[in-house]
Write a structure and sequence with these properties.
Blueprint lengths: L5 H7 L10 H16 L5 H12 L2
């Protein structure tokens, strides 16, 4: 039987998952995107593509 130290066990553990961006960041991005569309600076296609990119990130 092989005894493992805590350091050896920790070294074998997978790294922690990457932190998810805060939901409020996505909300602010979507709000800014909607403002750009309302100002006529984005087409419907550009808006839809960017919205999908934000929501899927």
């Amino acid at each position: 039987m092989v005894d493992q130290t805590a350091a050896q066990v920790a070294a074998q553990a997978p790294p922690p998952a990457a932190a998810q961006p805060p939901a409020t960041d996505r909300v602010s991005q979507l709000t800014a995107l909607a403002d750009l569309k309302a100002q006529g600076l984005l087409t419907e296609a550009e808006f839809t593509a960017e919205k999908a990119r934000i929501l899927n990130s």
